[in-house]
UniProtKB/TrEMBL annotation:
InterPro entries membership: CENP-O (IPR018464)
Protein name: Centromere protein O
Pfam name, any one: CENP-O
Keywords: Centromere, Chromosome, Coiled coil, Nucleus
GO cellular component, one term: Mis6-Sim4 complex
Keyword Cytoplasm: no
Family designation: Belongs to the CENP-O/MCM21 family.
Coiled coil residues, start to end: 16-67
Subcellular location: Chromosome, Centromere; Nucleus
Length: 300
Protein backbone atom coordinates (compact mmCIF):
# COMPACT_ATOMS: atom_id res chain seq x y z
CA UNK A 1 0.00 0.00 0.00
CA UNK A 2 2.83 2.42 0.88
CA UNK A 3 4.52 1.66 -2.45
CA UNK A 4 1.27 2.33 -4.27
CA UNK A 5 0.88 5.70 -2.55
CA UNK A 6 4.44 6.69 -3.36
CA UNK A 7 3.93 5.59 -6.94
CA UNK A 8 0.70 7.60 -7.12
CA UNK A 9 2.40 10.69 -5.65
CA UNK A 10 5.28 10.41 -8.09
CA UNK A 11 2.79 10.08 -10.96
CA UNK A 12 0.86 13.16 -9.84
CA UNK A 13 4.04 15.21 -9.43
CA UNK A 14 5.27 14.08 -12.81
CA UNK A 15 1.96 15.03 -14.39
CA UNK A 16 2.05 18.44 -12.71
CA UNK A 17 5.57 19.04 -14.00
CA UNK A 18 4.44 18.18 -17.52
CA UNK A 19 1.48 20.56 -17.22
CA UNK A 20 3.75 23.28 -15.86
CA UNK A 21 6.17 22.87 -18.74
CA UNK A 22 3.33 22.95 -21.26
CA UNK A 23 1.88 26.08 -19.64
CA UNK A 24 5.31 27.74 -19.72
CA UNK A 25 5.76 26.77 -23.35
CA UNK A 26 2.29 28.12 -24.22
CA UNK A 27 3.01 31.36 -22.38
CA UNK A 28 6.24 31.81 -24.33
CA UNK A 29 4.44 31.13 -27.59
CA UNK A 30 1.73 33.66 -26.73
CA UNK A 31 4.38 36.24 -25.80
CA UNK A 32 6.22 35.60 -29.06
CA UNK A 33 2.96 35.90 -31.01
CA UNK A 34 2.14 39.18 -29.24
CA UNK A 35 5.59 40.58 -29.98
CA UNK A 36 5.27 39.51 -33.61
CA UNK A 37 1.86 41.16 -33.87
CA UNK A 38 3.23 44.37 -32.38
CA UNK A 39 6.15 44.30 -34.79
CA UNK A 40 3.80 43.74 -37.75
CA UNK A 41 1.68 46.71 -36.65
CA UNK A 42 4.76 48.92 -36.35
CA UNK A 43 5.90 47.88 -39.83
CA UNK A 44 2.43 48.54 -41.23
CA UNK A 45 2.41 52.05 -39.78
CA UNK A 46 5.90 52.67 -41.18
CA UNK A 47 4.79 51.53 -44.64
CA UNK A 48 1.75 53.80 -44.52
CA UNK A 49 3.89 56.76 -43.48
CA UNK A 50 6.41 56.12 -46.26
CA UNK A 51 3.62 55.79 -48.83
CA UNK A 52 2.18 59.12 -47.75
CA UNK A 53 5.62 60.74 -47.98
CA UNK A 54 6.10 59.18 -51.43
CA UNK A 55 2.82 60.63 -52.67
CA UNK A 56 3.78 64.02 -51.28
CA UNK A 57 7.10 63.94 -53.11
CA UNK A 58 5.44 62.85 -56.35
CA UNK A 59 2.95 65.69 -56.17
CA UNK A 60 5.72 68.24 -55.46
CA UNK A 61 7.81 66.86 -58.33
CA UNK A 62 4.86 67.06 -60.74
CA UNK A 63 4.16 70.67 -59.74
CA UNK A 64 7.82 71.64 -60.06
CA UNK A 65 8.11 69.92 -63.45
CA UNK A 66 5.04 71.74 -64.76
CA UNK A 67 6.49 75.12 -63.84
CA UNK A 68 9.92 74.19 -65.18
CA UNK A 69 8.42 73.01 -68.48
CA UNK A 70 6.58 76.29 -68.87
CA UNK A 71 9.74 78.21 -68.02
CA UNK A 72 11.74 76.15 -70.53
CA UNK A 73 9.18 77.02 -73.20
CA UNK A 74 9.57 80.71 -72.41
CA UNK A 75 13.36 80.44 -72.51
CA UNK A 76 13.14 78.67 -75.87
CA UNK A 77 10.90 81.40 -77.24
CA UNK A 78 13.32 84.00 -75.94
CA UNK A 79 16.20 82.38 -77.81
CA UNK A 80 14.15 82.31 -81.02
CA UNK A 81 13.24 85.94 -80.50
CA UNK A 82 16.91 86.87 -80.06
CA UNK A 83 17.83 85.07 -83.25
CA UNK A 84 15.06 86.65 -85.34
CA UNK A 85 15.29 90.04 -83.73
CA UNK A 86 11.84 91.07 -84.96
CA UNK A 87 9.15 92.85 -82.96
CA UNK A 88 6.65 90.00 -83.38
CA UNK A 89 8.95 87.55 -81.57
CA UNK A 90 9.53 89.99 -78.72
CA UNK A 91 5.77 90.44 -78.34
CA UNK A 92 5.23 86.68 -78.16
CA UNK A 93 7.98 86.34 -75.58
CA UNK A 94 6.43 89.07 -73.45
CA UNK A 95 3.06 87.34 -73.62
CA UNK A 96 4.57 84.00 -72.60
CA UNK A 97 6.44 85.59 -69.71
CA UNK A 98 3.24 87.27 -68.58
CA UNK A 99 1.39 83.93 -68.83
CA UNK A 100 4.13 82.27 -66.74
CA UNK A 101 3.87 84.94 -64.04
CA UNK A 102 0.08 84.69 -63.98
CA UNK A 103 0.20 80.88 -63.75
CA UNK A 104 2.72 81.07 -60.91
CA UNK A 105 0.62 83.70 -59.13
CA UNK A 106 -2.52 81.55 -59.46
CA UNK A 107 -0.65 78.51 -58.14
CA UNK A 108 0.61 80.43 -55.11
CA UNK A 109 -2.86 81.85 -54.42
CA UNK A 110 -4.35 78.35 -54.53
CA UNK A 111 -1.70 77.03 -52.16
CA UNK A 112 -2.19 79.92 -49.74
CA UNK A 113 -5.96 79.48 -49.85
CA UNK A 114 -5.69 75.74 -49.17
CA UNK A 115 -3.17 76.43 -46.40
CA UNK A 116 -5.58 78.91 -44.80
CA UNK A 117 -8.61 76.68 -45.37
CA UNK A 118 -7.21 73.78 -43.35
CA UNK A 119 -5.77 75.92 -40.59
CA UNK A 120 -2.12 76.16 -41.62
CA UNK A 121 -1.36 72.44 -42.06
CA UNK A 122 0.87 71.24 -44.89
CA UNK A 123 -1.25 69.84 -47.71
CA UNK A 124 -0.24 68.27 -51.01
CA UNK A 125 -2.49 67.19 -53.85
CA UNK A 126 -2.40 63.46 -54.67
CA UNK A 127 -4.04 61.07 -57.14
CA UNK A 128 -4.12 63.71 -59.89
CA UNK A 129 -6.00 66.16 -57.70
CA UNK A 130 -8.58 63.66 -56.47
CA UNK A 131 -7.00 63.44 -53.04
CA UNK A 132 -4.92 65.38 -50.57
CA UNK A 133 -2.12 64.38 -48.22
CA UNK A 134 -2.07 66.37 -44.97
CA UNK A 135 0.96 66.44 -42.68
CA UNK A 136 0.58 67.30 -38.99
CA UNK A 137 3.79 68.21 -37.16
CA UNK A 138 4.04 67.84 -33.39
CA UNK A 139 6.29 69.73 -30.99
CA UNK A 140 7.01 70.12 -27.30
CA UNK A 141 8.77 73.04 -25.61
CA UNK A 142 9.88 74.42 -28.97
CA UNK A 143 11.31 71.14 -30.26
CA UNK A 144 9.76 69.46 -33.28
CA UNK A 145 9.03 65.78 -32.79
CA UNK A 146 7.13 63.36 -35.05
CA UNK A 147 5.15 64.31 -38.14
CA UNK A 148 2.03 62.29 -38.89
CA UNK A 149 0.33 62.10 -42.29
CA UNK A 150 -3.03 61.07 -43.63
CA UNK A 151 -4.32 60.89 -47.19
CA UNK A 152 -7.87 62.10 -47.76
CA UNK A 153 -10.03 61.14 -50.73
CA UNK A 154 -11.87 64.29 -51.81
CA UNK A 155 -15.11 62.88 -53.18
CA UNK A 156 -18.18 65.11 -53.82
CA UNK A 157 -20.39 62.54 -52.09
CA UNK A 158 -18.23 61.90 -49.03
CA UNK A 159 -14.76 62.72 -47.79
CA UNK A 160 -12.92 59.69 -46.47
CA UNK A 161 -9.49 58.83 -45.09
CA UNK A 162 -7.60 56.43 -47.37
CA UNK A 163 -4.32 55.93 -45.53
CA UNK A 164 -2.64 57.28 -42.44
CA UNK A 165 0.11 56.61 -39.90
CA UNK A 166 -1.81 57.91 -36.87
CA UNK A 167 -1.28 55.60 -33.83
CA UNK A 168 -4.20 53.19 -33.30
CA UNK A 169 -5.02 54.52 -29.83
CA UNK A 170 -5.77 58.03 -31.15
CA UNK A 171 -9.57 58.33 -31.68
CA UNK A 172 -9.25 59.09 -35.40
CA UNK A 173 -12.53 57.40 -36.38
CA UNK A 174 -14.49 59.28 -33.72
CA UNK A 175 -13.00 62.61 -34.77
CA UNK A 176 -13.78 61.83 -38.42
CA UNK A 177 -17.41 61.02 -37.61
CA UNK A 178 -17.79 64.28 -35.70
CA UNK A 179 -16.46 66.79 -38.23
CA UNK A 180 -14.64 65.36 -41.28
CA UNK A 181 -17.64 65.79 -43.60
CA UNK A 182 -18.71 69.21 -42.32
CA UNK A 183 -15.60 71.05 -41.09
CA UNK A 184 -12.16 69.89 -42.24
CA UNK A 185 -10.38 72.52 -40.17
CA UNK A 186 -12.13 71.41 -36.97
CA UNK A 187 -11.27 67.77 -37.73
CA UNK A 188 -7.58 68.54 -38.27
CA UNK A 189 -7.47 70.79 -35.22
CA UNK A 190 -8.92 68.07 -33.00
CA UNK A 191 -6.57 65.45 -34.42
CA UNK A 192 -3.59 67.79 -33.97
CA UNK A 193 -4.53 68.37 -30.32
CA UNK A 194 -4.65 64.63 -29.62
CA UNK A 195 -1.35 63.94 -31.41
CA UNK A 196 0.49 66.85 -29.87
CA UNK A 197 -0.73 66.01 -26.36
CA UNK A 198 0.29 62.36 -26.81
CA UNK A 199 3.85 63.09 -27.99
CA UNK A 200 4.22 65.77 -25.30
CA UNK A 201 3.26 63.33 -22.53
CA UNK A 202 5.63 60.74 -23.97
CA UNK A 203 8.43 63.31 -24.26
CA UNK A 204 8.02 64.25 -20.59
CA UNK A 205 8.52 60.62 -19.58
CA UNK A 206 11.63 60.43 -21.77
CA UNK A 207 13.02 63.61 -20.21
CA UNK A 208 12.39 62.22 -16.72
CA UNK A 209 14.34 59.09 -17.64
CA UNK A 210 17.18 61.18 -19.09
CA UNK A 211 17.42 64.06 -16.60
CA UNK A 212 16.35 62.32 -13.39
CA UNK A 213 17.49 58.75 -13.89
CA UNK A 214 19.18 58.68 -10.48
CA UNK A 215 16.28 60.29 -8.61
CA UNK A 216 13.00 59.18 -10.18
CA UNK A 217 11.95 55.82 -11.54
CA UNK A 218 9.12 55.41 -14.02
CA UNK A 219 7.27 52.49 -12.49
CA UNK A 220 4.39 52.29 -14.93
CA UNK A 221 3.09 53.92 -18.11
CA UNK A 222 0.82 52.81 -20.93
CA UNK A 223 0.94 53.29 -24.70
CA UNK A 224 -1.08 56.51 -24.56
CA UNK A 225 0.92 57.84 -21.58
CA UNK A 226 -2.32 58.98 -19.92
CA UNK A 227 -1.38 57.14 -16.71
CA UNK A 228 2.17 57.48 -15.40
CA UNK A 229 3.39 56.18 -12.04
CA UNK A 230 6.64 57.63 -10.69
CA UNK A 231 8.63 56.57 -7.65
CA UNK A 232 10.67 59.21 -5.84
CA UNK A 233 12.66 59.12 -2.63
CA UNK A 234 11.88 61.73 -0.03
CA UNK A 235 14.91 63.65 1.15
CA UNK A 236 15.74 63.08 4.78
CA UNK A 237 17.01 60.50 7.19
CA UNK A 238 14.21 58.02 6.51
CA UNK A 239 14.61 58.03 2.71
CA UNK A 240 10.99 57.00 2.31
CA UNK A 241 9.68 56.01 -1.10
CA UNK A 242 6.94 58.24 -2.52
CA UNK A 243 4.65 57.19 -5.39
CA UNK A 244 3.28 59.92 -7.64
CA UNK A 245 0.50 58.87 -10.03
CA UNK A 246 -0.25 61.24 -12.89
CA UNK A 247 -3.64 60.80 -14.59
CA UNK A 248 -4.59 62.55 -17.83
CA UNK A 249 -8.37 62.39 -18.19
CA UNK A 250 -8.31 64.99 -20.97
CA UNK A 251 -6.35 63.40 -23.82
CA UNK A 252 -5.96 66.73 -25.61
CA UNK A 253 -3.75 68.07 -22.78
CA UNK A 254 -0.18 67.35 -21.81
CA UNK A 255 -0.70 68.33 -18.16
CA UNK A 256 -2.36 65.88 -15.75
CA UNK A 257 -5.88 66.36 -14.49
CA UNK A 258 -5.16 64.49 -11.25
CA UNK A 259 -2.02 63.83 -9.20
CA UNK A 260 -2.03 61.31 -6.36
CA UNK A 261 0.81 61.08 -3.82
CA UNK A 262 1.21 57.91 -1.72
CA UNK A 263 3.68 56.92 0.98
CA UNK A 264 4.08 54.63 3.99
CA UNK A 265 3.74 57.79 6.04
CA UNK A 266 0.01 58.49 5.64
CA UNK A 267 0.48 62.06 6.82
CA UNK A 268 3.01 62.87 4.07
CA UNK A 269 0.57 63.61 1.18
CA UNK A 270 -1.26 66.22 3.30
CA UNK A 271 1.96 67.97 4.39
CA UNK A 272 2.47 71.52 3.00
CA UNK A 273 5.61 70.67 0.97
CA UNK A 274 3.92 67.77 -0.82
CA UNK A 275 0.69 69.72 -1.34
CA UNK A 276 2.85 72.28 -3.10
CA UNK A 277 4.51 69.45 -5.03
CA UNK A 278 1.11 68.17 -6.18
CA UNK A 279 0.15 71.63 -7.40
CA UNK A 280 3.46 71.91 -9.23
CA UNK A 281 2.89 68.59 -11.01
CA UNK A 282 -0.60 69.75 -12.03
CA UNK A 283 0.56 73.08 -13.43
CA UNK A 284 3.94 72.37 -15.06
CA UNK A 285 5.42 69.54 -17.16
CA UNK A 286 6.39 66.55 -15.05
CA UNK A 287 10.15 66.72 -15.63
CA UNK A 288 10.22 70.45 -14.82
CA UNK A 289 8.18 69.94 -11.64
CA UNK A 290 10.41 67.08 -10.45
CA UNK A 291 13.58 69.07 -11.14
CA UNK A 292 12.11 71.87 -9.01
CA UNK A 293 11.26 69.42 -6.19
CA UNK A 294 14.83 68.12 -6.30
CA UNK A 295 16.23 71.64 -6.25
CA UNK A 296 14.08 72.36 -3.18
CA UNK A 297 15.51 69.15 -1.65
CA UNK A 298 12.08 67.59 -1.28
CA UNK A 299 13.34 64.52 -3.14
CA UNK A 300 16.88 63.22 -3.42
Amino acid sequence: MQDAREYLQEGVLSHLQVLEMEALKLSRQQQAALEEQTRVEELRLTVERLRAQRDQLRAKINTTMSVQQLKAMVDHRNEEGDDDGDEEGSSQNSKLQLALLMARRTQLKDLLFAHHLIGGYDITATSNGKGACVSIATAFEGRYLETYSLEIDVNPRAVRICRHDVPPFIPLEKLAQESLQTDLRAFLHGLSQHLNAFVSRRQQVRLIQELLRDSVEVMESNALFNIVVLMCTEAGEADRAVLCTLEYADLTRYLPTKVTVESEDTALPASPPWREGQSLLLETPAHTALLTLKKKELIV
